[in-house]
Amino acid sequence: MATHVTNLHLxxxxxxxxxxxxxxxxxxxxxxxxxxQHRWFLVRSRFQLEQVLEGIQAEPGPVxxxxxxxxxxxxxxxxxxRLGVTCMSVLDPVLDLLQREIGMTAKEKRxxxxxxxxxxxxxxxxxxxxxxxxxxxxxxxxxEADVCMVGxxxxxxxxxxxxxxxxxxxxxxxxxxxxxxxxxxxxxxxCPVIGLxxxxxSLIEIRRHRLKLIGAGGxxxxxxxxxxxxxxxxxxxxxRRLCTxxxxxxxxxxxxxxxxxxxxxxxxxxAWHARARGGAPAA
Length: 283
What we know:
This protein is α/β, with parallel strands linked by helices. The chain contains ten helices and eight strands. The strands form two sheets. The protein has a four-stranded parallel sheet, with helices on both faces. A four-stranded parallel sheet has the order 6-5-7-8, with helices on both faces. The two termini are 43 Å apart.
């Protein structure tokens, strides 16, 4: 295996989420890459850029950037050229392509900063919403939700909701509990309702691990049904039937990552909104 180390510099005038996503997605295509990522975020002044340039000179390597200020862009490109390192604005190729296809000139890139800032606050707002509406809390607030996740206990509702919140989506989380009625707000839901299900065996393992984490030690008498195979099978089946009766789509999360589950949720949300608009649902 090669021991060569590559220094990768990520330079952004915002939070760097775009660069992080690009780097993560591309580096995942390599087997054990020996890459050191240097993150330089919120770079908006000449002084801040000088610190970045010093860092690049100390540990030379390719530079990926998203900078709105033209003078900062010019400086980092000029500096990289003198140093002999590759430098690329990751958004420019996409902007150029869309400008050609749409037939319009994009706005000054400084405007993109306002979009990023608004998006940041939207994600924070969504995160606060998820915290306030996790596990059946504040059901009256479902009226403000973009989506509502339902499912039995430990079926990945909470982590899925938090992942969606990072996309700026307000996701409510309502547990399906044996013998308990769902909140009346779900009788005529104002947003898509999506069920999460999981194989009983996998669910029991997750629940046993949860009991250990909270210090339950062995399985207590009052939690027997919680991890009993037949009881859990019946619980999962009843929850799935409930979703079917109400016309709610169901995602089996048994072998899905949170990212995959969230991607499917987004597709189902789009299909729901397409039907609401009277259009054809997404495939």
